[in-house]
Amino acid sequence: MSEELSLNINIKEPRWDQGTFMGRAKHFFMVTDPRNVLLSSETLEEARVITENYRAGITKPGLSEDELWRAKYIYDSAFHPDTGEKMFVIGRMSAQVPVNMSITGCMLTFYRTTPAVVFWQWVNQSFNAVVNYTNRSGDAPMTVNQLGAAYVSATTGAVVTALGLKSLASRLPPIASRFVPFAAVAAANCINIPFMRQRELKYGIPVMDENGNRLGESPNAAKQAIMQVVVSRIGMAVPAMAIPPVIMNALEKKAFMKVSRLLVFATPLCCALFPQKSSMSVSGLEEDLQERIRETSPNTTTVYFNKGL
């Protein structure tokens, strides 16, 4: 008979040390694995039950430690870390590679006319808006009106930025104009992400002590979280949009098909630039929240929060 699985495995945290880049990279390679998109609803539900039961002290008979971790990572790839809700499939980070690869290929191919730029930037920013909302931090819901306003402002701002850069490209050499899609995506990320997560900037995101006890909500923590996500997202676009233009100027589409394979690695590696469970000093929080923490948890000097993806 197999031994009973220990209940002392901490699956509330990733399997690998998140204090190192390699540990975070291993974690995100599991979470962003494109194969997770193909998993059935039954498999996702089974992973949810195994994970939530184990956290409650209930172990499935015959379950091995590797099977437990596999279930935990399937759960993490499909369910929101704060709300526990199943995420919309194309908004999951595991869908980032296949969907982004398709959109990026079209953006790099159809960039010469204004209608094409508008259409593919709108498609790209609509996809980004879904991803940004799906992977937001915190558990506060957004109303339909708030979500609609955020979507319109995010996509409009991003498309207008792309058009401005497109007009600049007409005065640039052909090789330089190839970088317009990347510049547009980078600039648009700086607009789209804050707009889609504007509620966090206004009301804050939950901050916890080292034991996971909720201490309050902080807009300052939201600013740090969103800034880190913007940097990561721009980094994800580099292999597919900043490298291919140099080669594509001579080889056209074939180069993209080769270089786009780097997206498989770019997504987890750029997610790993910062820990998903980010932190900041209590002194960096709002004055009223600092005061509240000093009263309720005087020994706490650092707070932690989910930065989103």
Molecular structure report:
The chain is mostly helical. It contains 14 helices and 4 strands. Strands 1-2 form a two-stranded antiparallel sheet. It has a two-stranded antiparallel ribbon with strand order 3-4. Helix 4 packs antiparallel against helix 5 and helix 6 runs antiparallel to helix 8. The longest helix is centred in the middle third of the chain and has 26 residues.
Short summary:
This protein is mainly alpha-helical and 309 residues long. The chain contains 14 helices and 4 strands.
DSSP strand content = 5-15%
Number of strands: 4
- Sheet with most strands: strand arrangement: 1-2
The poorly predicted ranges are none
Distance between the termini: 42 Å
The helix content, as a percent range, equals 55-70%
Instruction: Categorize the overall geometry.
Output: globular
Which value, in Å, is the CA radius of gyration?
21 Å
- What class, by secondary structure content? mainly alpha
Task: Supply the number of helical segments.
Answer: 14
Q: What's the SSE pattern?
A: HHHHHHHHHEEHHHHEHE
**Overall mean confidence score, pLDDT:** 81
Largest sheet: 2 strands, antiparallel
SSE inventory with pairings:
Blueprint: H1 21-31, H2 41-55, H3 65-78, H4 96-109, H5 114-134, H6 144-169, H7 174-177, H8 180-196, H9 198-203, E1 205-208, E2 214-218, H10 219-242, H11 244-251, H12 253-259, H13 263-271, E3 277-281, H14 287-296, E4 302-306
Antiparallel strand pairs: 1-2, 3-4
Helix pairs in contact: 1-13, 2-3, 4-5, 5-6, 5-8, 6-8, 8-10, 10-13, 11-12
